[in-house]
């Protein structure tokens, strides 16, 4: 199995570090977020990874080369001309997954001890178009699922914006954790072009396809997007 790590973001919330570095190289107990997530994927049997780069891309490329990919075969998807967000980034790198049944996609600034292998097993057993890692935690935006864990909508609890794409008697809101296992057939169904989000893709495809959640509530998951979250991460991840 192969994976993609989204590492092209500007990391604006991590200033001033990101004024001179990419967020992928933020250190948590002496190890970069990129290194930690490559090791995380290795722990679940994934040693082939494509990484998209934009902000201080050369620093990420240098780190990968100097460390021999930390033991993985690393391919770079170059977005230095224009950052494409998650959807556009995956679309640009779609060639990498030719011949794969399913693949993993994750954000570089997420640290977790979630059982990725169990999530992959669910994807393979239930044959959904994609499986999204979610949990019960407070955030501003939620995916909405029916009682069978099928993606049915999205909600912003700050401004009240809501998008329902599938009828359901009950809508259960879950926070998306930035990790997904995707069936490769999804790639040919993407209608958007250029710069766009995977959230928009999922909501569009959920109207006619089954996209499921994988609830990992109770495991550790930290979005290392702010300086204070680095300290929280260092207290959990050695």
Descriptive overview:
This protein has helices at 33-42, 57-66, 85-92, 116-126, 198-205, 227-236; strands spanning 2-6, 27-28, 31-32, 48-53, 73-78, 102-107, 110-112, 130-135, 141-145, 151-156, 162-164, 172-183, 211-215, 221-223. With 238 residues, the chain is of the alpha/beta class. It has one domain (2-236): Spore Coat Polysaccharide Biosynthesis Protein SpsA, Chain A. The strands form 3 sheets. Strands 1, 4, 5, 6, 8, 9, 10, 11, 12 and 13 form a 10-stranded mixed β-sheet that branches. It has a two-stranded antiparallel sheet with strand order 2-3. Strand 2 (27-28) and strand 3 form a beta hairpin. Helix 3 (85-92) packs across helix 5 (198-205). 42% of the residues are buried. The mean pLDDT is 97.
Any descriptors?
238 residues, alpha/beta, Spore Coat Polysaccharide Biosynthesis Protein SpsA, Chain A, 10-stranded mixed β-sheet, two-stranded antiparallel ribbon, 6 helices, 24% helix, globular
Give the topology.
Layout: E1 2-6, E2 27-28, E3 31-32, H1 33-42, E4 48-53, H2 57-66, E5 73-78, H3 85-92, E6 102-107, E7 110-112, H4 116-126, E8 130-135, E9 141-145, E10 151-156, E11 162-164, E12 172-183, H5 198-205, E13 211-215, E14 221-223, H6 227-236
Parallel strand pairs: 1-4, 1-6, 4-5, 8-13
Antiparallel strand pairs: 2-3, 6-12, 7-14, 8-12, 9-10, 9-12, 10-11
Helix pairs in contact: 3-5
């Amino acid at each position: 199995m192969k994976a993609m790590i989204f590492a092209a973001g500007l990391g604006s919330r991590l200033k001033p570090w990101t004024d001179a570095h990419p967020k992928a190289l933020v250190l948590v107990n002496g190890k970069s977020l990129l290194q930690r997530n490559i090791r995380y994927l290795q722990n679940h049997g994934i040693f082939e990874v494509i990484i998209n780069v934009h902000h201080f891309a050369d620093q990420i490329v240098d780190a990968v080369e100097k460390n021999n990919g930390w033991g993985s075969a690393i391919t770079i998807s170059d977005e230095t001309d224009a950052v494409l967000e998650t959807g556009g980034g995956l679309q640009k790198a779609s060639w990498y997954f030719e011949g794969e049944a399913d693949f993993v996609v994750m954000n570089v600034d997420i640290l977790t001890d979630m059982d990725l292998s169990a999530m992959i097993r669910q994807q393979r057993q239930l044959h959904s178009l994609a499986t999204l890692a979610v949990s019960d935690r407070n955030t501003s935006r939620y995916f909405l699922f029916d009682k069978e864990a099928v993606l049915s909508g999205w909600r912003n609890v700050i401004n009240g914006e809501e998008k329902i794409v599938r009828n359901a008697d009950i809508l259960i809101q879950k926070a998306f954790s930035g990790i997904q296992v995707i069936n490769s057939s999804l790639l040919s169904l993407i209608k958007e072009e250029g710069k766009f989000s995977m959230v928009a893709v999922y909501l569009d495809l959920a109207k006619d396809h089954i996209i499921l959640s994988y609830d990992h509530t109770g495991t550790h998951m930290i979005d290392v997007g702010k300086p204070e979250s680095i300290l929280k991460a260092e207290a959990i991840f050695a």
